[in-house]
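Late entry, evening session. Most of the bench is empty. Finally got around to the prediction I had been postponing all week. Sequence below, unchanged from the version circulated by S.P.
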Amino acid sequence: MEIPGHNAPSSHSGGRPVNDTAGPIMPPYHLTYADAEITDIPAFLAAVHTTAGNLGAHTRIICINADRVAGRLHITTALAHACRTWFTDKNPIARSFEMEVLLWVAAGRQTSVAARFGAQKGTMPLWVVVVAAEESPTAEIARLPGLTLYPAPPATAEEMGAEKQARLMQDFSISEAELSTVGLKRLPELVAERVALSAVYR
């Protein structure tokens, strides 16, 4: 199974060079992991927007609820597709790059559904994707209200407990028979495949 973005690096130097015409434009990106305690969503999102501006005119920050996604592979696959529709094909569904990424994460077309994959009020783990930062974003991200960054994603970031497994199977229409055929360890690949296949319905 060939998954777009499967081999994409996860540091701020990751992705394709912007002048690489062999494939979709993939700006440099940085992927980190945090525990979040968010008491005010509008204030948090305003802080995210301000932080992105501080990191560069073209920088975008996308916060993704780690409990709703199948780890790094899921996110990098969605990011690769979002970059293609936004930068290469120039035919996105969303009005913002951040929402375009979330639509691909959700493997759907409805922004109301995609928004549930983003940061929510309360306590949750977050994957934080920073795209096209002009410098290392770690210090700026660490100052976002309610976030506690990990030096590196913990092992739990890729774990598939029973509750998370059931949620992913429901959200991405994965049957018990399909999962039993490939095995639980390949659930992230099945989810990434759903993300890729969602391009057919756009």
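Two things to note before I forget:
Residues 68 and 168 are 7 Å apart (CA to CA).
The radius of gyration is 16 Å.
Will write this up properly tomorrow.
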